[in-house]
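A quick aside before the break. I want you to see a complete sequence-to-structure record at least once, exactly as it would be stored in a machine-readable document. Don't worry about memorizing anything.
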Amino acid sequence: MNQITHHDFGLFETELLSVDFISFNIKRITPQQITRLASYFQNLGFNSYQKQLDSNQSRQDINNNNSFYNQFEVYFIMKIPYQKEIIQLQFPGVSGKQFYKLIKQRAIQWKKFPNPLIQFRL
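That is the input. The structure line, written in tokens, reads:
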């Protein structure tokens, strides 16, 4: 994976980039921090779900109160093979496109993320 920070997204503005999936890794955070981050995503129009592994089909709602109007989703993947101290956030399909759009609009408040971003994957 490429080492990319959120500052690098400005470089994509002139490219005709079509994003269909975004994921990034953060250092493991507490359940309370996950709930706060899920609330932040809910305010941006994303429902949040937790999965133990990326390959799991089952998911658990995180703080999706009154959010049936939200069109987008983010997955908190709790176990990453070979990475014990990492949680992965995934924005699949149209959710990835929406998150990328928010990044380009500088609408993401990166300070809401409790730990530094480790890796982005487009």
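Two observations worth writing down. The chain has one domain: 26-121. Strands lie at 21-27, 46-51, 60-62, 72-77, 86-92, 117-121. We'll return to this after the break.
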